[in-house]
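Lab manual, section 2.4: Encoding a predicted structure.

Procedure: take the sequence of the chain (376 residues), apply the prediction step described in section 2.3, and record the output as structure tokens. A sample record is shown.
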Amino acid sequence: MNKIIDNKKRHLLRNLLFLSPAAYLAACNSTNEQSKISSDKFPKIKLKMVTSFPKNLPDTDLPAQRLAKKIEQMSLGKIIITHYAAGELVPAFQVFDAVREQVADCAYTAPIYWISKDKAISFFGCIPGGMTAKEIFLWLKHGKGQELWDNLYNKYNLKGFPAGNTGTTMGGWYNKEINNLEDFQGLKMRIPGLGGEIINRLGGISINMAGGEVINSLKLGVIDAAEWAGPWPDTIMGFHKVAKYYYGPGMHEPHTLCEFMINKKIWNSLPEEYKIIIENASYSSYLEVLTEYFYKNAQALRLIKKEKNVDIRSFSSDIVKMFFKHSEDIVKENSKDSQEYKNIYKNWQENIELFNEYHQYSDNAYMKLRLKYRNN
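Recorded output:
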């Protein structure tokens, strides 16, 4: 008899491991009464989500839609999120203020777009020559990164979570060869964030342009070059049809974090259970988006090499060296203007040093050996 009971317990435990946090709470109600998540303590709420990306774009807007659905499912229908792509409720680059002022309640966007609001936001979007997608998540989740991000966003009535990442991007599409530093002189390039500042220091002209405008601008010669993300989203956008030269890797974006951003007052009003659901849904989205990018980028690059009339190249060592130098110079200069920026920079740099020590015996060291000795 005891053996039968033990087997039933094991069976129940095994089933619970596959449930969402909300469903787990429901399963724990042994009296079969209405679950806690469905009680009056947990009211149904409706949120308006905006994005900075074109409608139904597979690599950015569709993940936003999936995240909204994920939150609804994990809350057993208690949190309903209505999704608006860029331009449907507010323009792409007005998302930050829209959520801050509660024109919208939340957003799926990228911190890299908001450094004009506060230079310190760049640490949570992307620093050229900085952390990878894996490293920034480790810093946010296990280091002080999320605490520092929260303190920064508090000033703007916002709360952010990592909810997606492109991984290391490509260096961009060019209508001319980029063989040396002189080739950047006068180059007009669509590139946001600190990467754009580096282009300016190299003698080019950076332009921050919404995704829906980039292809036509490159085609018409309004700009000479543009970067987006990687082979998969780049071919979806159609870059391979309007530019011949494709350079990599993207030192300007060793990762690009996407965030679930929510109005802080709304966040503070939510039951703790809802906060846990949103946090875990965002983390789940982060892993889903990052792995989708990596796999489909690998597939797309192979197709570009075989089927597209594109010349894929690597940047010269002189260009790479100057990208890293300018990045370090910019970050150090910015740290003089703000104590908060300086504090974030210090902690960020300490974690990079920690990760670099381990990389000598971890992923980085192993990948070098695999590329050298594994038959491809």
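Check your result against the sample. The radius of gyration is 23 Å.
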